[in-house]
Amino acid sequence: MSRLIVQSPGMLSLIQDLGRSGVGHLGLSAGGPADLHAFCWANRLLGNPSGAAALEITLGQASFRAEQEIALALTGANMSASIDGEPIEHWRSFVLRQGQVLKLGFARRGFRAYLAVAGGIRGAIAFGSVATVVRNQMGGLPQSPGRALIKGDVLESAGLRFNLASSHEQWVPSRFIPDYREHIDIGMFETYQNSLFSDEQKQQFYQTDYTISDKLDRMGIRLQGNAIHPAQNGVISEGIAPGSIQFPPSGQPIILLNDRQTLGGYPKIGCVSKLSLMRLAQARPGTTLRFYRADIADESQKLQQFMRFFSL
Questions:
Q1: DSSP 306
Q2: Which InterPro entries would you find in this protein's record (predicted)?
Q3: What CA–CA distances, in Å, run from 98 to 5, 101, 232?
Q4: Domains in the chain, ordered, with CATH?
Q5: Taking a C-beta distance cutoff of 8 angstroms, is the pair 290, 185 a contact?
Q6: In this structure, what are the phi and psi dihedrals at residue 15, rounded to the nearest 5 degrees?
Q7: Nearest-CA neighbor of 104 among 134, 61, 139, 155?
Q8: What DSSP designation does 284 have?
Q9: What are the tens digits of pLDDT across the range 242-263?
Q10: Do the beta carbons of residue 219 and residue 136 sit within 8 Å?
């Protein structure tokens, strides 16, 4: 069985698969990769099933040593990866030989990288998933579930069937590699309590360049910009979908992500599209963004194409 030793976990490294479905009524967060696009490509490069567990590495500064020869793939944020000091490119698969060390520097562009292992990573199964949700103390390593990786942890291959021929020197075509810019446009759909926002407030919302604050994690992203106050400050608590855009009393919007709470009582103007959520996962503090009304038919068609491509 292939094993990878964590020499340094960096800022935050978590085992993630596609996450838990149907657990919201239990008060549990779904978890799963923040950037589904980069996650799925990492597994595809190795011939893994699209939902095989992989590592989500936030901001970088992580390193891993191979106990045996192991096939890996790295996608997402550019973290100046190297093997024994020799630079390698991202968005490709490669072989880490016994004793070699893969090192990731600080993310230069983007926010999260994904490291996949041939055969997937063995994890602690809870409600049908090994996705790590720290606030729920679920998923992660079998020997110590519910936490982020620490120095000395051992990652073992789950032994899932994979295409060995696809696990050596495969590259993602350039047209599928995102450009993690410092300004992005985010498609959203007006839902929930959008009627509590006046036409003038909506116009201001769509015309504002919001800045991502340093208060962001897997639960949500706080934005800074023109304050918007809906007709009332609270609503009866209700289920919250990923990408919900809620407005607390401060008037500064919060976009809720994978590890969000399952219920909330702040007014919500709508939801970010799933495709825009993937891009938003790579946005760092200081990035500016602007919202636009997305066409639900167009977004649905693109999402269906994505899901078919990765057999999700």
A1: H
A2: CT_A_B, Cyclophilin-like_dom_sf, PxpC
A3: 11, 9, 61
A4: 3-176 (no CATH), 183-309 (2.40.100.10)
A5: yes
A6: -80, 130
A7: 61
A8: P
A9: 999 999 999 999 999 999 988 8
A10: no
Q: Which long-range contacts (CB under 8 A, 24 or more apart) does 225-230 make?
A: 225/252, 225/253, 227/251, 227/252, 228/197, 228/201, 228/204, 228/253, 229/201, 230/193, 230/196, 230/197, 230/201, 230/267, 230/269
* CA–CA dist 76, 281 (Å, integer): 10
pLDDT digits (tens, 9 = 90+) for 267-304: 999 999 999 999 999 999 999 999 999 999 999 999 99
User: Any idea what DSSP says for residue 41?
Assistant: H
Cβ–Cβ under 8 Å, residues 140 and 6: no
Q: Is 245 helix (H, G, I), strand (E, B) or coil?
A: strand
Give just the sign of the alpha carbon dihedral 200, 201, 206, 210. Answer: positive
